[in-house]
Fold:
Amino acid sequence: MKDISLKIEDYLPLRDVVFNTLRDAIINGDIEPGERLIEISLADTLGVSRTPVREAIRELETEGLVVMTPRKGAEVAKISNKDLTDVLEVRRVLEVLAVELACEKITPEQLARLEENLNDFDACVSKGSASDLSSLDENFHEIIYNATDNKRLVQILSNLRKQMYRYRFVYIKTLSHRKTLHSEHLEIFNALKEKDKAKSVAAILKHIDNQKKAIMENIHFDC
Amino acid sequence: MKDISLKIEDYLPLRDVVFNTLRDAIINGDIEPGERLIEISLADTLGVSRTPVREAIRELETEGLVVMTPRKGAEVAKISNKDLTDVLEVRRVLEVLAVELACEKITPEQLARLEENLNDFDACVSKGSASDLSSLDENFHEIIYNATDNKRLVQILSNLRKQMYRYRFVYIKTLSHRKTLHSEHLEIFNALKEKDKAKSVAAILKHIDNQKKAIMENIHFDC
DNA sequence: ATTTGTAATACTGTATACAATATATATAAT
DNA sequence: ATTATATATATTGTATACAGTATTACAAAT
Structure:
């Protein structure tokens, strides 16, 4: 007997379904920054009770997507220029740590998966959907995070990336950005393959800084 | 009219009370690693309903103090040597970032508060309680975190420190450790006062690495 | 016109009840 | 004796009800 395991994810408690639904809605702008999240009306809309909605909202708060005030309720977080800068400032040093660790610990199997990801990405650059590219991008970085063999780092970095999801379409929208993305990933991959720390760090920094630039140029903030 | 603001913290919802209670219990070892957290029995013990207990447990999970499995429940996280190493690995680079930013942005007022903290600490070294020293230690670092003017960084670093609370007594227990702690804080303070990044980084690294050593020497892990 | 007081309303906070699932126990079958 | 099956029990997941608190609207007073 082999490879038989329950796909526990299929069980997905309601709160997680609600969570995913709301997160998508926020990221896609269906619920706007500053808009209030009323438990009862969300529950009615989604056809569930308040309990899972409450728990989902709390999860969203820890991801920084909503802000809660006691006895007043929750609203979609307004992300300011400063907030984004703060997130990137932290991500920057953690991404550096991540590739350094990955250089030491990445397995051949993980390298193979990165290569496969690059191929898929390449195939998607011109004809793939934004959603496809977005998840490939996410997947690429998750592989590297996991290669660090540091759960805490994986958790924090994944979280920080999620807080920038709202802006991911910016650098996936145009063909030129897609090509840049691919070439930067390739560069990171090659550096990791060679286990060259300095090169890896340089590549990841370039990647991050480019994304920051792309976002800053294309977004104008409310506040 | 000036400086009048409601101390909203005094309202403290039940879930936060429960959260604090449980956290203290875990940190102090009243609830042991691996022990299950049963909602209903905790609720009965504390004289509240399941709802605030549930929410408190979820908060504890995001702090890494408990581990939850869907439909099975929560248990106090078993912290392994590896876990602690992982936390410190991340903290290390973030603490470096923090002092670098603090060098640039710390205000005279914050420096004054650090100095005051050092005086209080000095007064406590020989005769203070472990709890006094612990909160002074926490306060010292919180001032530096806040000096970075990066909310995200403050949030993550505070969180990572909390995950090591269980071990704080190790380096507060003995007089020699207390003295070391004070002199290291002094060194960090002086470097920040001079706005000397290299010196600050060196001082904070020494501080972290010393703590790691102290903990590693004094704790033996279950797993 | 501005402030104050009061009531109505809309929420969140908390408790509780019920449903679904996992775990433990006991019994029967081989 | 071991496995399989059934049953009871414990515990989480979800829904709902009620209590307490904020917000709003509006009337009364100055």
